[in-house]
């Protein structure tokens, strides 16, 4: 097995609990380094980012997983840890920019929903010109949010302009960071998959689906954090290959790829460089062997 590695993990959510024991069985000890919800000393050296009573000193770590989601705090944590990351800052920033991802994938010839990025301030005429390239209903979504936050559907011109009115008010606040949003084609009754790619290879995925009563009530967003269930599923070869190509184009080693299937179309809706790890039974055999291999490779290359 070789020498044991110390892995710094920047999230204490579900993924931490799920990967800790399987990686420990493979010679990788996982400990939490808390990047948020605390006073984070900027001076004082590596020991200043110690996450808690059960966390070793920061200078004991060999590798990180993955770069903190809040980039300001992440800069301090990453400097103090001074370790290579499975998914570094570049990977997280790349994936977070939905429009940038879709543009890169489209440029590489991969299928994505028809999409326009609107950068405020824009007037109503510009919004309507963008909407005219699509058919109602259209999806309106923030360019950099996660978990389905802020994603909505406009059914006509009036509802679209009502939504963009609110966005204009929010973006008028000077401290607002990302002042862009997407108009995107709506794919009716699309099946929603989260496909996991580790070190260039698809390792399985889940189908995310709302309960029947929620669908009957008109709900359509399949985010797990909005009540959908993620079920293990057999992925077709076309889906697996597409996810692997996405990870290759974006050059991200550990990636969740969201793929929508509508009729005979497969399209990449977005990606996540900080994907939640689900129950291992939902992935291919050898999932944790490949994940442990990526951690060791990252540490060795760092």
Could you characterize what this model shows?
- The chain has 302 residues and is of the alpha+beta class.
- The protein folds into 3 domains: 5-87, Rossmann fold (3-Layer(aba) Sandwich), CATH 3.40.50.20; 114-185, ATP-grasp fold, A domain (Dna Ligase, domain 1), CATH 3.30.1490; 188-285, D-amino Acid Aminotransferase, Chain A, domain 1.
- It is built from 9 helices and 13 strands.
- The strands form 3 sheets. A 5-stranded antiparallel sheet has the order 11-10-9-12-13. The protein has a 4-stranded parallel sheet with strand order 2-1-3-4. Strands 5-8-6-7 form a 4-stranded antiparallel sheet, with helices on one face.
- It is globular, with a radius of gyration of 20 Å.
- The protein starts with a strand and ends with a helix.
Topology:
Layout: E1 5-9, H1 14-24, E2 28-32, E3 63-65, H2 71-81, E4 85-86, H3 89-96, H4 98-107, E5 115-119, H5 124-131, E6 138-142, E7 152-154, H6 157-171, E8 180-185, E9 191-198, E10 201-209, H7 212-216, E11 229-232, H8 237-250, E12 254-262, E13 265-272, H9 287-301
Parallel strand pairs: 1-2, 1-3, 3-4
Antiparallel strand pairs: 5-8, 6-7, 6-8, 9-10, 9-12, 10-11, 12-13
Can you give me a brief rundown of this structure?
This protein is α+β, with helices and mostly antiparallel strands and 302 residues long.
Q: Tell me, what's the shape?
A: globular
Q: Give the low-confidence spans.
A: 52-56
CATH superfamily of the largest domain: ATP-grasp fold, B domain
The Rg value, from CA coordinates, equals: 20 Å
Supply the number of helical segments.
9
SS-based class: alpha+beta
- The tally of domains stands at 3
